[in-house]
Write a structure and sequence with these properties.
Elements lengths: L4 E6 L4 H12 L3 E7 L21 E2 L2 H7 L4 E4 L3 H13 L3 E4 L6 H14 L3 E3 L5 H14 L5 E7 L9 H11 L22 E3 L2 E7 L5 E9 L2 E9 L6 H11 L5 E3 L7
Parallel strand pairs: 1-2, 1-4, 2-3, 4-5, 5-6, 6-12, 7-9
Antiparallel strand pairs: 7-10, 8-9, 10-11
Helix pairs in contact: 3-4, 5-6
This protein binds 1,4-dihydronicotinamide adenine dinucleotide and ligand LZUJQKHR.
Amino acid sequence: MNNNVRIVIAGPRGRMGKEAVKLVQEVENFELVAVIDRKNNGMMLSDVEGLPNVAVPIYSDIAECLGNVPADVLIDLTIPETGYVHTKTALQHGVRPVVGTTGFTKEQLTELKSLAEEKEIGCIIAPNFAIGAILMMKFSQMAAKYFPNVEILELHHDNKLDAPSGTAIKTAEMIAENRPEQKQGHPDEKETIQGARGADFEGMRIHSVRLPGLVAHQQVQFGAEGESLTIRHDSYNRASFMSGVKMSVDTVMNLNTLVYGLDNIIN
Ligand SMILES: NC(=O)C1=CN([C@@H]2O[C@H](COP(=O)(O)OP(=O)(O)OC[C@H]3O[C@@H](n4cnc5c(N)ncnc54)[C@H](O)[C@@H]3O)[C@@H](O)[C@H]2O)C=CC1
Ligand SMILES: O=C(O)C1=N[C@H](C(=O)O)C[C@H](O)C1
């Protein structure tokens, strides 16, 4: 009997998608069975120049793909609108999504969780797959209990579509569990240029930097009387995310609900 985990990857030409294709080829019991790409519908991955020499079909339409190709897991690394449609369609087809795509709304997450539970299958939506980033979020959540004054600075490459990053939003949500809502800075402070104080999440500020040369970085900065604490994580390449992708594929096979964030998996 073949016990391989049969995997479809959406976004195989992207920065993350390329790494994920490599990962799936490297792991013994993972098997790439198809990819979903905006371009090259009907071709084989191995026929497209610059892509890995793997003889699997390319589909542009996820429903057609999952209707034709038996699969266990969808890894989605695309863009927010597409990622949501792909996740929903995968769940409807009984295929377990592992989603790295960021920018989902709260309403979308709630809807997808209900769908996963209705279908009784696993789904992981992970704003960040890097183990160090998960620890950075957890350490920040711990620190917020003692340091309620905090600002989040996230720094990314300038091809990123969403701001703030999914990681920054998830960090703020985790911190908010340990920090009563409070406005920071001077009560009468005014922005003389709009946006100067960053985005406001329950009174904590999130600042987004976009520059060529960066990959994915975040600094959570706490301040108190006479001291400060900075918790920082840096991803220098996309390979840094792949151990988390592997862990998610392994884990999603044994879940029957949606898990949002690897902080719920790494104890
Ligand atoms: N969870 C995590 O650890 C990480 C998440 N990300 C997120 O992953 C996503 C992808 O990031 P990158 O690879 O850097 O972006 P990218 O822009 O390099 O790749 C996105 C790919 O999605 C494809 N795509 C868009 N619409 C599609 C559709 N309808 N069907 C098939 N493919 C489609 C594009 O053609 C492109 O190849 C982003 O949302 C990003 O925020 C990125 C890095 C780490
Ligand atoms: O777009 C990226 O690159 C990244 N996106 C994720 C996010 O929005 O947090 C994860 C990581 O920061 C890289």
